[in-house]
Amino acid sequence: KTDEVVQVVTPSVASLNDFNLLLERSQRLISKWYFVPSPKDDVSKQELRELIKEDYPRIKKQLDSLSVNWTKEEKQSIKTITSLTDQLFVVFQEEIMEQLVDFSNYEDAQLYFLVKLPLDESEEKLIVINKQLHSLIESQKIHAETVTGKMFDSFTFLQIFVKLLGIALVIGGI
C-alpha cells in the first residue's frame, strides 16, 4: 500500500493539479496575446509557446505513464481531456498565435475581429476540459484517501499484532 501511495496515487493527484494550473496559465496567456498588442518576442508570448511545446508534452507524458494504474474510466477520461487539449492548442497556434504575430496584425481590424471568434470558442472548450479535469482530480483524490486509509489500517493492525506478540513473549517467558 505504501508503494502505491508514494509511486502512483500521490503523483497522479499532483500531476493532475499541475495540468490544471497549466490550463489556467494557457488561458491567461492566450487572452493576453489577443488583448495586449505586443512584439513577436514578448515574454508572455514566449511563455505560451514554451507552455505548448515543452510544458504540456512533459505533463501529458507523465499522466500517460501514471494512468497505467488507473481505472478504465479514468484512463478514458484522461485520453479525452488530452485529446481536447491537443485540439485547443492547435487552435491557439494556428488561429490566434500565427495570426497576431506583431503590431501590424493588431492594427488590421478585420483580422483582429476574425481572431476573436476562435478565442471565444477556445474559452468554451476550456470550460468543458476543466469540468472533466476537475471530475478526474476528485476521482483521484477519493482513490488517494481510500488507499491511504487502507495503508493506515494495515499499520494499526501491525501495531496491535506487535503489542500482542510482545505480551505473549512476556507471558511465555514467565
Q: How does this model look, in words?
A:
Helix 1 (2-35) runs antiparallel to helix 5, helix 2 (43-66) packs antiparallel against helix 3 and helix 3 (72-97) packs antiparallel against helix 5. The chain has helices at residues 2-35, 43-66, 72-97, 103-107, 109-173. The two termini are 37 Å apart. By secondary structure, the chain is mostly helical. Mean pLDDT is 88; it is low at 1-7. It is elongated.
Low-confidence stretches at least 5 residues in length (pLDDT < 50)? 1-7
Tell me about the biggest sheet? none
- Based on secondary structure, the structural category is mainly alpha
DSSP E strands, number: 0
Q: Helix content range of the residues, please? A: over 70%
**Measured on Cα atoms, how large is the radius of gyration?**
24 Å
Helical segment tally?
Answer: 5
Distance between the termini: 37 Å
Secondary-structure element string: HHHHH
| Percent in strands | under 5%
Question: What is the overall shape?
Answer: elongated
- Tell me, rounded to a whole number, the average pLDDT: 88
Summary tags:
disordered N terminus; single chain; 174 residues; mainly alpha
Condensed summary:
By secondary structure, this protein is mostly helical. 89% of the residues lie in helices and 0% in strands. α1 (2-35) runs antiparallel to α2 and α1 (2-35) runs antiparallel to α5.
